[in-house]
Amino acid sequence: VFTAIMLIVTLPILTGGLLMLVLDLHLNTQFYDASFNGDPVLYQHLFWFFGHPEVYIIVLPAFGVISQALSTSAGKSVFGGPAMILAMGCITVLGALVWAHHMMTVGLETDTRAFFSAITMMIAIPTGTKIFNWLSTFMGNPFSTISLDIWYALSFIFLFTLGGTTGVVLGNTAVDVALHDTYYVIAHFHFVLSL
């Protein structure tokens, strides 16, 4: 449900941005051409409004798979089920609000950068809730009964936690500017998706 909501909200924005780009290329409109009072940064805003939530669109179904695998292995419901659902909702809302943290180097106002930095760091709260609940579900099970799917789930949790930690570091505006277009950002993305 949360993934579908994010797709319904973000795909029309991407479609509109790409339509404006096609019109600029083929019909000589000037949506993004700065020499004709267009705004090239507008394309970045439209792209990242879709591009950042796309990460959550990809990873939210994996959260469900991990929850199901841990629940099945433990023989009990996921610890804090309602909190897990609330965390997914918070991740959905916050994930759609933080697109501009990819654009700290384009000259955003200081208060705008502070807003996006704060919202970016706030995603760590529901994410931390999910990690805590996953590990709490797993606790109490003897290690001798861990199957291969649980090893994959634990590997995902470890890599996702590492990626989330690097994301909190990138939430700081000064660090984000310093690490912009580096392999640190690429590693963060791949760790979050546990690729």
From TrEMBL:
Q: Report membrane topology.
A: Multi-pass membrane protein
Instruction: Cite the entry's keywords alphabetically.
Output: Copper, Electron transport, Heme, Iron, Membrane, Metal-binding, Mitochondrion, Mitochondrion inner membrane, Respiratory chain, Transmembrane, Transmembrane helix, Transport
Q: Which gene encodes it?
A: COI
Q: Kindly name one Pfam family recorded for this protein.
A: COX1
Instruction: Please state what the protein is called.
Output: Cytochrome c oxidase subunit 1
Organism of provenance:
Eimeria apionodes
An example molecular function term from Gene Ontology annotations: cytochrome-c oxidase activity
Primary localisation category: membrane
Role, per record: Component of the cytochrome c oxidase, the last enzyme in the mitochondrial electron transport chain which drives oxidative phosphorylation. The respiratory chain contains 3 multisubunit complexes succinate dehydrogenase (complex II, CII), ubiquinol-cytochrome c oxidoreductase (cytochrome b-c1 complex, complex III, CIII) and cytochrome c oxidase (complex IV, CIV), that cooperate to transfer electrons derived from NADH and succinate to molecular oxygen, creating an electrochemical gradient over the inner membrane that drives transmembrane transport and the ATP synthase.
Give the superkingdom in one word: Eukaryota
Pathway in which this enzyme or protein is active: Energy metabolism; oxidative phosphorylation
**Subcellular locations according to the entry:** Membrane; Mitochondrion inner membrane
